[in-house]
Amino acid sequence: MNVVLLKNPDDEAMWDHFVLGHPQASGYHTLAWRGVISKVFGHRTFYLMAKKDERGTILGVLPLVLTKSPMFGCFLTSMAFFNYGGVLADRSDVRLALLAAAGETAKDVGAAHIELRQTEPIETDWPVRSRKASMRLALPPDYETLFKAYPSKLRSQIRRAQKEGMDGRGGGEELLEDYYRVFARCMRDLGTPVYGKGFFRSIVETFSKEV
What we know:
The protein is α+β, with helices and mostly antiparallel strands and 211 residues long. 42% of the residues lie in helices and 17% in strands. It has helices at residues 9-20, 32-41, 92-109, 143-149, 152-163, 176-190, 197-210; strands at residues 2-5, 45-51, 58-69, 73-78, 88-89, 113-116. The chain is globular.
């Protein structure tokens, strides 16, 4: 087994194949997000792969994004800007090899620390924080069952929006201006800094190509 940086285009399909087949993976582990982050924010990325041998199958992956901030310093994150990420591997020796390679990468680029946003605990002697919670809802097969499971107050709020004629639309870049106007206003009201419009345009362009 050896751990290498993802540089060979031939390995890109293998990376996504591994990610899409792993039960603990998130969509943010896929390579499409590397392109968005690099293009919009200009951050360097280090995508580590543990391979059985030079031509062998992938045993584990760890995507890392290098962030430099005047306030928070220089650090590596898996995954930056998102709540999900971290190391993906089924074997403890593979995870340890990826973490060791991440440590060496941090030394090489001058990063003060590494943050892994794991959805499941892993065996490591790295410091662990568990202050964040992920709220998930199992979806039933039909709308009526889902609607009846909501609390009465939430059902009333939904009915009010329906009475006011609210509707939802899906699309691509032709809806970006409308979407961004609502999104930016909501983030402003929450006191949260908002991403630039180019971030969402890049997402639309990237995933339109994927489809």
